[in-house]
Predict the structure.
Amino acid sequence: MTISFEIEPRGPFSLAAASRFIAGWPPAEGPTDTSDGAVRLCFALDSFAGHAGVTVRNDGDAIRVEAAGDGGEDALRAQVGRILSLDHDASDLGEVLERDSVAARLHREADALRPVLFHSPYEAAAWSIISARIQHAQALRIRTELSRRLGQVLDVDGVEMAAFPLPEALAELDSFSGLPDEKVRRLRAVAEAALGGKLDPIRLREADPADALAALEEIRGIGPFYAGLILVRSTGAADVLPPGEPRLMSAIGDAYDLGGAATPDQLASITEAWRPYRTWIAVLLRASASLG
């Protein structure tokens, strides 16, 4: 079944900026394609009722989404909107940028980039387990093979793409080439957490951040760093900072000429002006540091 619908961005948004970000973000390689100006995504549905492939294009002032596979329009609209941070009304973002000239410059240089997220907290948690302590190329190969064997291969507007396995399939994994036994056990724990509702994006986003992080750290193999990654880069939270993230502290130090990485006090002082978009501006800083 093919579904077509529009998403109207509220506030500044650039699909071209999202495409450029995706092209340089290792976790996006494979289940995301930007080869011809469109953005193609292939993912497990939030409901875990199946898989979908979508193609996202500009259509005047709106964003046109063409979807194939499983899922109804409301569910797909919500998930695609979250992935591209189109689920937020950013009409007041200009007021925030007026308070901080560095953030305004970064936003301008990044062509109004909004965060591009993992397809779901479930997929973010699985990537965290797979990619830990190995090279990105190896992690990508393993995830692609897992997706092809246990997930679903879809034709997404002429491009063959493999969606990550549903948690029911991952929960049955006994072994897999390239994955140590402990990582297999951790992936099964991620699958069980997803099936138990512990990786629901709305539940995590609406919880107190400290409680959400603590709940994520209860999942086998998910420590503080990856708990922060999951919360900040997959739930759609717009005003949560990754806790104690060294690369963000370094990026703030460089952008604000602090003579070194930001201290916790400097972080708190500088980011206060970013509310309610601390997550978004942190992503701009990280993107600027990666490209610089």
Observations:
- The chain has three domains: 2-95, 121-152+165-234, 246-291.
- The mean pLDDT is 95.
